[in-house]
Amino acid sequence: MNWAKKIDQRMPFALKLAGAFIAIIMIGIIVVYILLQGTMVATFQDYSNQTSIIHAQGMAPFFAYYFEQNGNWQEVEKLLTAMNSAHGPLGEHLVLADATGEVLGPYDSQYFGQVLAPTLLNRGAPIMLGGRRVGTLFAALGVSTPPLLEISFLNAIQRSILLAGVAAAGIALIIGFLIIRQMTRPLRQLSSATREITAGKWEHQVEIHSKDVIGQLGKDFNTMAQKLHRSEALRQRMIADIAHELRTPLTVLQGNLQGLREGVFEPEPKFFSSLHDECVLLSRLVNDLRDLSLAEAGELYLNSQLQSIEPLIDRALKHLHPLFEQQRISLCREIEVELPPLFVDSDRVVQILINLLSNALRYTPAGGKITIRAECMSQSVQVSILDTGLGIRKEDLSNVFERFWRADSSRDRKSGGSGLGLAIIKNLIEAHGGAIWVNSEEGIGTCFTFSLPIKGS
Ligand code: ADP
């Protein structure tokens, strides 16, 4: 169907719709015309048969009287000719059959001399005399073509149907045109909005007037544009943030190396160790960024296995044990017995726990307490890390999972925080099908809780 494809490609959308409209109208008119034509002719035939019988019934008493007077039908032809010459209202043609059903007249009738079958006799009016059927009278028996009056009546009706069809088509086309204009307007708006957004005008939105599928399309388009706008802004901010984060250690490295080259600094071991620290910071930042971008793109590979959470908590605690001692922070372990196993990547879960515990250690002053709690909920295992540290300001709580967000950027950078840790954790937990949230009160402490689904729940 090459031509159909070509029409589809070249024809404007409004024209296609209009074409479909016209086709439907035309089909409608033709169908109505054919149906009406059929039923009308049949109904009219029926009607004229009925009128014929009624007419014959009206005439029957004359013939009964004739029979009564003459005692037989011998001279009836004269009466028939006289009556037939003065046509009935629809041009009826009277035919008479005797008591046996034999057609007696008129002579020119096609049935003359024939004995009519009972079914045919039923279509006539019986001529009764003294309770005895002496004959049957027919009007229009054997007249198959409708008389002139009927033809002109049928023609008039057909003309009116055609005229009504044409008028309906005209009205339908005008209404169709208005509907098509109304329908294609939001589509044209959408198309121009798409061009605006492609040209970088992100704030462009389409106006929504209807609640139908096109209105929904407009709504979805606006949401999509907003999301694109947001992710574009996020992308730009992320690039700026990364550049900013990289600049500081690079400046330190560059300055120090320059001082070394120009002989301003002595090449002491202490000096090299500070350079090394900056390099470690840089490489950690790059690793974090890699993790985050993989997690956000949903491409993080999880080596998940059925695993109990308790040994993972122990692994993380063992890793941080020296820090607890160093900072004189007490540890409280509240792990429910017989927790159900989870389908998780154990290294990633340990990474999450180490990250949350390190944060708690970092923001809790000496003498404080960190509690790690694990409990079984209906469909998940919940792990909470509570500290008695600085806490997070209420207005900052919604930001903690944002990339590069730090409550106090200068302090945290020195202590090694890039502001990426919680963003990575959130992505890792969500990749496991879980969730993380935080409660905190300034000066009292913070509680990070994450849940991991129990397999099969
Ligand atoms: P960072 O690598 O800087 O720790 P995170 O994403 O882990 O980055 O944390 C972001 C910020 O959230 C931190 O800079 C800190 O301000 C705040 N924060 C995280 N954990 C705690 C906590 N336990 N107590 C107080 N503040 C916290």
What can you tell me about this protein's structure?
By secondary structure, the chain is α+β, with helices and mostly antiparallel strands. 57% of the residues lie in helices and 14% in strands. The protein contains eleven helices and eleven strands. The protein has helices spanning 2-10, 13-70, 76-85, 118-121, 148-198, 213-261, 269-296, 309-326, 346-362, 409-414, 421-431; strands at residues 94-98, 103-105, 125-129, 132-139, 305-307, 330-335, 342-344, 369-376, 380-387, 435-441, 445-453. The strands form three sheets. It has a five-stranded mixed β-sheet, with helices on one face. α8 (309-326) runs parallel beside α9 (346-362). It is elongated. It starts with a helix and ends with a strand. The structure holds adenosine-5'-diphosphate (ADP). Adenosine-5'-diphosphate (ADP) binds at residues 359-360, 363, 387, 389-390, 392, 400, 405-407, 412, 417-423, 446.
